[in-house]
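From the pipeline queue, job 12 of 40. The input is one protein chain; the requested action is below.

Action: predict structure.
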Amino acid sequence: MAPSKLTEYERKRLDNIRRNDEMLAALKICSKASQLSASSKRHRVESFKSFKVSPEKKKPKPDSQIVIRRSLRSRGMPPEDGESLETPNKIQMPSSVEKPSPPVMGPFSMSDAYCGTGSDRPLIDTILSLQKKPLVDRCEPVKMEQSDEILHTSVKKESFEREIKIEKKEVESCVDLWSMKLKPENIARIMPGRIMVVKFLPCNDVKMIAAGNKMGNVAFWKPDSLDEEGDGIYLYHPHTAPISQILFQQSCLSKIFSSSYDGFVRMMNVEKEVFDLVYSSDYAIFCLSQRPNDKNGLYFGEGLGELRILDERTGRISSQWMLHENRINSIDFNSQNPNIMVTSSTDGTACLWDLRRVNADKPNCLKTVKHKRAVHSAYFSPSGTFLATTSLDDTVGILNCANFEDISLICHYNQTGRWISSFRSIWGWDDSHIFIGNMKRGVDVISRFQRRTILTLESPYISAIPCRSDIHPYNVGMLAGGTGGGQVYMWTST
């Protein structure tokens, strides 16, 4: 209870409180505050209710497929970098929900793989007709004037002994390079997409070119097909990834091997009209070769640096070695001594091997040619005395195989980009010149003697860069080049 007598201070305080209450009542402050408080409370309740009644997240269906992503490296495939490394397309997810059909293992008929216009019967009849002729008649070797004096030497290098023939006199070119011309009738677009490999049919009687592209197609083109129906182009689809090599059986032209990044080696058997499965792998196959005078052995580079030898008769691997730290891009054999093999790799090296002395646990090579970047190819000269390498470090190397000491690096621009296959220098019909494409829509000719480019094969008919090339083994002056757009050019010596 308040005291009966208030002090002066307490009376003033009560008067101030009364005046403030009258002022608040006049402004209706209390009623406004109560309304705002009720509105705020109602909003919090509604928000809480809306949160509680929100639908739950949908759970994945139990039968939905879980996709496990694997890098290209773990599958033995290179990255997409512009084929400077000859690489396949990046994997794209299908737009439909249907599972992709698994690749057909084989065998399957040529008619099922054929996707060209018209009939492929003329091609089959042509190849079968060549089988009836003796091998000597259809494969007459190129004749070159060489010195009769041949020096036989025995070279010892890193505890390996080799026998090789050394020419005392340099061989002059067997063809007039300035007479090589490109005619309009020797140009054709034989397939879609980027060409990965170009090969002549090793036969004197028929002019035929085989090519493989990035999509897994293999095409055959007969430039001299005016008397036949159609345009002389026959297109097949035996693989699902880029073609890495096309190989004609040495003693039987009706058997044509093809290797691919899809991990398959197939044989086109024209007699049976089927594509047989020779070998399958979980890793990409980047190169394929056959040893001279060994028609049953197939040598191929699989995955990251492994080389395997397949016996085509049994279908089994007879030997396998880890020769490089990265993928093997090319395999070639010495014509004088088939026991000497050379491999090129993305690890920046080209290595020479003696197949008689390869240790399975720790292979030792005869010679290592080192480059600063990936080596796309390494090929022996026709006589086997020299070796030509092509690297992404913008050089073409020439090695004298007689002493392993004379090495020359010739500058050549090899940056092709992602849409064009990498350049690979090849030897001509003798040891005097090397052919390699250039970025100016031509083919450069490098002289081994002068160590420089002495000529460029050009033509107003060329509309693309001939990145991959091949020479006809029996027709001197006949050169083929494939482009990134599926075109093939054929130069001839007039």
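Job complete. Residues 29-52 form the longest helix (24 residues).
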